[in-house]
Amino acid sequence: MIDLFSGLDAWVLVSLLLALAFVLAYEFINGFHDTANAVATVIYTKAMPPHLAVFFSGVFNFLGVLLGGVGVAYAIVHLLPVELLINVNTGHGLAMVFSLLAAAITWNLGTWYFGIPASSSHTLIGSILGVGLANALLSDIPLGDGVNWQKAIDIGASLVFSPMAGFIIAALVLIGLKWWRPISKMHKTPEQRRKVDDKKHPPFWNRLVLVISAMAVSFVHGSNDGQKGIGLIMLVLIGIVPAQFVMDLNSTTYQIERTRDATLHLSQFYERNHESLGEFLALGKSVKDDLPGKFRCNPQQTEPTIAALLSSLKGVSDYHSLSPESRIEVRRYLLCLDDTAKKVGKLPGISAREKADLDKLRKDLTATTEYAPFWVILAVALALGLGTMIGWKRVVQTIGEKIGKQGMTYAQGMSAQITAAGLIGLANIFSLPVSTTHVLSSGVAGTMVANKSGLQSGTVRTILLAWVLTLPATVALSAGLFWACLLYTSPSPRD
Questions:
Q1: φ/ψ of residue 404, rounded to 5
Q2: Are 61 and 390 in contact (CB under 8 A)?
Q3: pLDDT at 267 > cutoff 80
Q4: Which of 73, 70, 77 lies closest to 128 in space, CA to CA?
Q5: Which residues contact 178 (CB under 8 A, 6 or more apart)?
Q6: What angle do CA 214, 219, 220 make, to 5 degrees?
Q7: Of the segments 23-27, 57-61, 278-282, 413-417, which one has the largest average pLDDT value?
Q8: Are the beta carbons of 387 and 30 closer than 8 angstroms?
Q9: Cα angle vertex 29, ends 77, 114, to 5°?
Q10: Mean pLDDT for all residues in the chain
Q11: Which helix (H) or strand (E) holds 272?
Q12: Running DSSP on this structure, what letter comes out for residue 399?
């Protein structure tokens, strides 16, 4: 790892270390900001002592990051338009990362301080959108191209519908438990358990389910939210030291061959569908050396881009053999081809089978660009795990006592946690970032309604207000910071 940063200018090295520190600080804050939700029910119901619950939650968050892959990481990264991703400029990269992280950290700390279960995912996405929109305005790019709106819509839908699903499913699970065991002790609150049964802890089986489901929520939280930190660090590394990180330098010969084969098969795919794609891709009409520039990808440059990529990778068995400039070019070609293939997949006239083939080709194209070194994953896992072990008290009280008019029963805690673990785990399978906070707190609210416990309007109103305001607030804050950074560093973002 250390040799990767050798030879860097002092200013670049300091900037890089500061940027990495910012990302890890964000993940640390995410740990105690969001993970409090994962342990809120298990602590409130006294299924586990607080410090033991927080410790094991930190461990499972750590494991979740290590084992979660990078699908969600790059779903977050691709909120930015491909034009901003191919522009690997040190000043630009620094401004982008510092702006979005400063905005996200500020909002997260503010909501944590007031004990509001706000979403770190929501916060980060708003910050990324703000940077993308600001970059569009400052670079004379149409606002419609300033953000990957299709990806933003997909992620936005997951953030909106997952809490709704959490509310409904958790309510149904509780109703099912009440139907199955209507007079069970699991329908008591911790206070009722203490007064009636003179017991401090839940019944054994309820306690076991509460503990297991809490750790499951912690694990899926790590595998979902932890990946967001991984994506941010990769943005930092690619933006500041592109020569070392634009491609996975540890790619095997087989992986490089897969990339080369995917490029060749992509060309064959377009030829096979010449009738429907000829005009969109300007097949047979493009100029040989008309290649993607530093700031723009164009579908009508597809043929010369494929030719240039095949030429660049000819005889290459190790990315180390490519010059730093060639690596940046290869990545630009791959990202532009992937972006065009994504657009092609949405065009009419392409059969479902052909679209499935195209999706497979896209995965092979980006296999050596969408990656994360193990030390990055480990660093994020440690930051998230350690952050989990502090700062949990404020949110625990809100989840346990302030959402419903009555305290939470054991059955409600189990229903909310099982639902949250299931939904977030499902989101991980489809590489969709979701909010642990929103899913779990909505699940608790759903159980309160199903239990006819009623909701505390003030708390619910505050949570909803934070939910509504998070996106515009972080968009505005990150956009303003990005503009200020670029104004300070250079008169133009293209300099």
A1: -95, 160
A2: no
A3: yes
A4: 77
A5: 187, 411, 450, 451
A6: 100
A7: 413-417
A8: yes
A9: 120
A10: 84
A11: helix 253-272
A12: I
The label of the residue with tokens 């207000």 reads 465
Please report which helix (H) or strand (E) contains residue 208, including its range: helix 204-240
Over residues 305-323, the mean pLDDT reads 93
Read off the pLDDT of residues 9-38 as tens digits, 9 standing for 90 and up. 777 788 788 888 888 988 888 777 666 677
Instruction: Give first-to-last CA distance, the chain, whole Å.
Output: 30
For 407-456, the DSSP string reads: PPPHHHHHHHHHHHHHHHHHHHHTT----HHHHHHHHHHHHHHHTT--B-
Alpha carbons 168 and 175: distance in angstroms, whole number: 11
Distance in angstroms (rounded) separating the CA atoms of residues 131 and 128: 5
Give the mean model confidence (pLDDT) for residues 66-90.
76
Q: Are 274 and 228 in contact (CB under 8 A)?
A: no
What is the number of H-type helices and E-type strands within the chain?
21, 0
Q: Cα–Cα distance between 422 and 215 in angstroms, integer?
A: 12
Angle at 336 between CA 155 and CA 93, to 5 degrees: 70
Q: Is the pLDDT of residue 199 over 70?
A: yes
Q: Where are the domains of the chain?
A: 9-244+372-489, 247-365
Q: Does the pLDDT at position 191 exceed 70?
A: yes
Alpha-carbon radius of gyration of the chain = 24
Tokens standing for 390?
A: 């502090």
* Burial of 204: CB neighbours in 10 Å, binned 0-12, 13-18, 19+: exposed
Q: CB-based burial of residue 153 (10 Å sphere; 0-12 exposed, 13-18 middle, 19+ buried)?
A: exposed
Whether 147 contacts 77, CB under 8 Å: no
Q: Output the 3-class SS for 237-265.
A: HHHHCHHHHCCCCCCCHHHHHHHHHHHHH
State the residue for tokens 């939904």: 423
Q: Which pLDDT belongs to residue 7?
A: 67
